[in-house]
Specification:
about 350 residues, alpha/beta, 4-stranded parallel beta sheet, 11 helices, about 45% helix
Length: about 350
């Protein structure tokens, strides 16, 4: 049985317990229930009230949030969600459900036993608390929490940890937990990213430059100790090396800034507007910080980024989808779970 702990040997191991050996809680940011101003307002209120996301004093921030932002942004943001919404629902939710289903299938095959996998969103539905409840109902007394954020940030991964801790304050018999903090340099993660890029190039050809657009955070967070920027740069360097790119063939940028505070630079929109004048006529853009396509990738980068680049004189712009439920991505998630549960089996 001990030999089964190795990731390369664990397939085929048989667990004989009548209850699941463990369960998995996949966590992502979340999405509004509907692409309507009312649903978006409810979602933004929860999201922007998280002190890990906006760490200003509530006495200063809440009047701005309640009095201005929640009365002006929901309608505009709802229109953006409508532009990417599908018949099945929010892209992030639909893809996340497929990720959970495929991961459960792979883990169950690995352990020769049903391993439940549930979704929990930091904001919106299904909540992290509901994910725990579903796992408990299936008999899981040991749970792996897997935030789908490759690079750690206090505004994402730490927020998940806070939500887990808050849920457990009301639980008498807490489950045994394993929490995956990050996987920015995991070999299987870099391999999955490289495969998605080379597959894209085989179909569409290679552009002058590969842009790696990561979600931004305030620069102040980094100065206060958040390792996010350094982890993003490490991911980018490892991917560029895997693809055998020269320094001139790739570049990192950061997207989705909010408010007036300085965020990580270069800003994606500004960089895309500058590149044509620098002789870059075509770009491929990938978003390695996102495990699942969502509003920020499908609208901001795929649509908005293209408009910015072509308007500035660029000739060809292509967006490379997130890893989503790609086979190599599910294999990565399986490996991450196996690494966490090795001490349990």
């Amino acid at each position: 049985m001990l030999a089964c702990l190795d990731n390369r040997l664990i397939k085929g191991c048989t667990l004989t317990s009548p209850s699941p050996a463990f369960g998995v809680l996949l966590v992502n940011l979340g999405t509004p229930d509907e692409p309507t101003p009312k649903a978006v307002k409810r979602f933004l209120k929860q999201f922007l009230s998280d002190p890990r996301v906006v760490d200003l004093s509530p006495w200063l921030w809440q009047p701005i949030l309640q009095g201005i932002i929640l009365n002006t942004r929901p309608k505009k943001v709802a229109q953006l969600y409508q532009s990417v919404w599908t018949e099945q629902g929010s892209p992030l939710m639909v893809i996340s459900q497929r990720q959970a289903q495929k991961l459960a299938t792979d883990l169950s095959a690995t352990f020769n036993q049903t391993i439940p996998v549930e979704l929990g969103m930091s904001y919106g539905n299904p909540s992290i608390a509901s994910g725990f409840a579903k796992l408990k109902a299936q008999g899981a007394e040991r749970i792996v929490i897997l935030p789908l954020y490759p690079q750690y940030s206090c505004s994402t991964v730490a927020s998940v940890f806070d939500a887990v801790a808050q849920y457990l304050t009301g639980v008498r018999d807490i489950p045994e937990l394993r929490f995956n903090k990050q996987y920015f340099d995991h070999e299987a993660y870099i391999a999955a990213l490289a495969h998605s890029v080379t597959r894209h190039w085989k179909t569409h050809g290679q552009a002058d430059k590969l842009l790696l657009s990561f979600h931004g955070i305030p620069l102040r967070y980094v100065k206060e100790g958040d390792p996010y920027r350094e982890q993003c740069l490490t991911t980018a360097k490892l991917l560029a090396h895997k693809l055998a790119l020269s320094d001139s063939q790739w570049q990192v940028c950061f997207q989705s800034r909010f408010g007036r505070e300085e965020w990580l630079t270069p800003y994606a929109d500004e960089l895309l507007a500058e590149l044509p004048a620098q002789g870059v006529h075509s770009v491929d853009v990938i978003c390695p910080a996102f495990a699942t396509d969502c509003l920020e990738t499908l609208e901001e980068i795929s649509v908005g980024g293209q408009e910015t680049f072509l308007h500035a004189g660029g000739q060809r712009y292509r967006f490379i989808p997130c890893l989503n439920d790609d086979e190599l991505h599910i294999e990565l998630l399986r490996q991450l779970v196996q690494e966490q549960v090795s001490a349990w089996i």
